[in-house]
Structures are given as structure tokens and as C-alpha cells.
Specification:
386 residues; Transcription Regulator spoIIAA; three-stranded parallel sheet; binds iron/sulfur cluster
């Protein structure tokens, strides 16, 4: 059988790490079908396959990127009218009825065929990637109202060990709540002591924020020893949670993480009002932590009409939470960007000064990149020796 796997041409924001959007589900499905002796090709829409496919499997991400999924279905339906088209992934799982109207033949909800591909080694040869993805767990123990994880993955599942899955020196964990895994201490310990045959170690990143209710000094230290880079503390709730956030920051700092390389994840345009979000941002300024902000969109939003930039938009063009205005959304985003710049540049009191970006753009990018590359080579050499 000929299987065509399709990644729609999602509008991945410029400057966002590719690690956030690797179609890991498709890579596992590819391995599963290869094991069935099927011919498999992965393309990014609108590219075509070198054969006439019997089955086409289109992945999906956020519901508000549904348009790109629909476009892919329409495109491949027109080119390969006899092929059977199936759509899976996050949008398909959250909004199967809406997805079914895209013109596909089937909507796959949840893991592919009940999880048959879950333990397959992803077919990394199909993508150009210098990192690998690992899920040490599925689901989440929390039930945050704004989050789709517990709806898409209602059952929590945990791996006790991941050492057998390691194939590349850079690992990105796609867990939803890494620290909720009861075996996380053992996993961090095995990552810290892991060596490839040539002596190289691994470095890790985690896409999710660190749950402040679960972080302990020992886990912070274990994260550092496991060589997790740029940890991100979750702070989606009220300002009153500041003590827990500060405690998490202190644990990470004691473990060896520099404050300005630690981020705080913040959801805005949701239940916490604008004025309180500014207080949270102000706390991060005082602590010297950078902020990774995320604008809330409803889980059933099939479009996002927001246009970045200073130009105002009317309330009907994109979703603003009752209590929030377009102007507040834009002001909050701008304040986050400016504060992050101030922290990065080590400006006095981490306060932004208009025009300070000139310092950033004053140095040609190739000089900065060369210096950065040299610094990280030196750092890697030092830690490999350690
Ligand atoms: S802790 Fe994170 S992954 Fe879990 S439900 Fe809340 S937002 Fe979602």
C-alpha cells in the first residue's frame, strides 16, 4: 500500500523553534506503516508524492489553524481523487464534527488506531532535524479550563525509563506536565548519567512549563544535571501565586540556572484581568525573569484573525476575552517584548529604555552569531569534560 503523510503548511511564526512543530505523530505512523511493508512518503502541503497514494493521512494542530488542514484536504482530494483521506491530530480530536466537513473520509480522534504507533521509533530520516522528541508521559493530572490536553489525552500514562529511546544528543520532551510523572526523578537521573559510545552527553528541553506545585529543590538539581536548557516556570493563574513562582525561581537558581535564562509562561487574554497581568509582569521584572506569553484563543476557535503589530483591530476580528480589549492585548504583548529585551541587555532595574534595541542591531548579525556559536562550543566542551 502507498501511504502519503501530509503536514499542512501551517503559518509557523517566524523565529519560533522548529522543535515546537515537528510532526512527531506522523513520524511514528510512518514507522508503523513501514513495518507493515507499506511505501511511505512525508510531504509538506502542497507537495506531491512520487506515487499514487492509496491512503493520505493529514495531521492537524491548533483548532484555529484548521484552515490549513481544510486546504490540504481539498488539494489532495483534487489531485488524488481515489485516495482515502484521513485527518488526525489535535484539531481533529478536539473538533471531529467540524473536521469531518473538510471533505476528508475519516477523522481519527486521539492516538492513531488506538495507539498502535505509540511505541514505534519515529522515522527521523523523513525530516531534517538535529533533535529527537520524547514523550515520557501522556495526559496531565490537572484540568486547566483553557487547556485541551486533558480532553485529547484523558488518560495519564507514564514511562518509567526513556534511556532506550535516546538516539540523538539533543532531546525535546513533548510532555504536557513533565514533573507529574511519578518516575521523573529516575528519568532525570538516567539522562544525567547517559553517555553515547563516544562519550557525548545529551542536552534536553521541555516544551511544557514547570508545574510549581511539583517542583522541589532535588528535582531542580536533577533537571540541571540532566542538562535541561532554559527552564520555563508556569504561571497561568492569579498574581496571588507569586510566592510559589518565586520559590520555583529560587530552586532553579540554586540548582545553577541563571535567572535571565529562566522564563515564566503566562497565559493572557483569559480570566486574569489586564491590570493583574501587569502586576505579574512587574514581579518578573523585579526578579529578572523573562516572560513567554501566550494569547488565549477558545478551544473551538477555527480561525484567529489577530494581526500582530501596533495597528488596532475591531473586537470582531479576533477573540478578546470579556474584560480584555484589543488595546490591552497589544499593550501587554509590547510590554512583555520590551521587558524581555531589557533583561537580555541587563539594563538597570530591567527597565526598558526606548531605542535600546539599537544596541542589539548595532552589531552585525554574523558577528553576533559567530560569537554565540563559539560561546556555546566552549560551554559544551566544558560540560562534556565535567
Ligand atoms: S497543567 Fe498544563 S497541560 Fe496540564 S491541564 Fe494545565 S495547562 Fe494543560
Amino acid at each position: 500500500m502507498n501511504v502519503l503523510l501530509v503536514e499542512p503548511a501551517f503559518p509557523v511564526p517566524a523565529g519560533r523553534p522548529g522543535s515546537a512543530y515537528l510532526p512527531i505523530g506522523l513520524l511514528k505512523i510512518a514507522s508503523y506503516h513501514r513495518a507493515q511493508k507499506d511505501q511511505v512518503v512525508l510531504v509538506r502541503s502542497p507537495d506531491l508524492a512520487p506515487f499514487y497514494p492509496d491512503e493520505i493521512k493529514v495531521t492537524s494542530l491548533f483548532t484555529y489553524w484548521s484552515r490549513w488542514v481544510w486546504d490540504s484536504v481539498a488539494h489532495y482530494r483534487a489531485v488524488y481523487p481515489k485516495a482515502r483521506i484521513e485527518v488526525g491530530g489535535i484539531y481533529a480530536s478536539l473538533m471531529p464534527e467540524h473536521c469531518a466537513q473538510s471533505g476528508c473520509d475519516e477523522v481519527a480522534v486521539g492516538l492513531y488506531r488506538g495507539g498502535v504507533a505509540e511505541d514505534m521509533a519515529p522515522a527521523y530520516d523523513l525530516v531534517d532535524s538535529d533533535f529527537q522528541v520524547i514523550h515520557a508521559s501522556r495526559g496531565c493530572i490537572r484540568r486547566c479550563a483553557f487547556c485541551g490536553v486533558w480532553r485529547v489525552e484523558p488518560k495519564s500514562e507514564y514511562r518509567e525509563s526513556i534511556v532506550d529511546l535516546i538516539v540523538k544528543p539533543r532531546i525535546v520532551f513533548y510532555d504536557n506536565n513533565l514533573l507529574a510523572n511519578p518516575h521523573v526523578a529516575d528519568i532525570l537521573c538516567e539522562l544525567g548519567s547517559f553517555r553515547f559510545k563516544d562519550g557525548r552527553r545529551v542536552s534536553c528541553e521541555c516544551q511544557c512549563g514547570l508545574d510549581t506545585r511539583l517542583l522541589t529543590p532535588d528535582l531542580a538539581l536533577a533537571l540541571k544535571k540532566a542538562r535541561f536548557r532554559t527552564p520555563r516556570i508556569s504561571w497561568d493563574g492569579a498574581y496571588s501565586e507569586w510566592k510559589r513562582v518565586r520559590a520555583a525561581m529560587e530552586m532553579l537558581e540554586t540548582a545553577g540556572y541563571e535567572r535571565r535564562n529562566t522564563y515564566v509562561f503566562m497565559l493572557y487574554n483569559h480570566d486574569v484581568p489586564y491590570s493583574e497581568m501587569r502586576e505579574k509582569l512587574e514581579a518578573c521584572r523585579r526578579w529578572g525573569l523573562r516572560v513567554a506569553d501566550c494569547r488565549y484563543r477558545p478551544l473551538d476557535a477555527v480561525e484567529d484573525g489577530y494581526r500582530p503589530g501596533p495597528k488596532p483591530q475591531s473586537p470582531h476580528e479576533y477573540y478578546t476575552r470579556p474584560g480584555w480589549t484589543d488595546s490591552q492585548v497589544r499593550r501587554f504583548r509590547r510590554a512583555v517584548r520590551q521587558q524581555n529585551i531589557a533583561i537580555m541587555l541587563r539594563l538597570p532595574n530591567n527597565r526598558y529604555a526606548p531605542g535600546c534595541e539599537q544596541h542589539l542591531v548595532g552589531t552585525p548579525w554574523w558577528v553576533t552569531r559567530k560569537a554565540d556559536a563559539q560561546r556555546s562550543r566552549d560551554r559544551r566542551k566544558r560540560s562534556d569534560r565535567a
